[in-house]
Amino acid sequence: MVVAALFASTLPAEALAADEGAAPVSAITIANYTQGRIFQREKGTYSSFNDGTKTLSISGTYAGGIPTAIVATINGRAYACSITSAADGNWTATIPSVPAGDGYQISIVAAPGAASASQSTTFGIGILFAMIGDSIMNQMGSTSQGPAAADSHARWTQAVGWWPTSADKNGVARRGGNGLVALGNAIRSCFTTAARGNTTPVGFIMGAQGGTASGYWQAPRAAWNRWVAMVTDPDVGGDYEMVLSNLGTSDTDIGQTPGTAPTFLTNYHNLYAQMQAQTGRDTSQLKFGVAFTGAIVNSEVADANVDFVRTGEAAQSAAAGCFWLGSNTDYTHGRDGIHFSAAAYERIGARYAIAICKQYGILPYGNEGPQISGARWAVGSNQLVVDITHLSGGTALKDGDGGTSGAGLIGFTVTSSGGQTISSTAFSGNTILLTMSAIRGNSDTVSLCYCGGRNPWGWTNSGDSIDKLVFDNRASYADDTTGFPLQPTQGGLASPMTVT
Question: 3-state DSSP call for residue 169?
Answer without folding.
Answer: coil
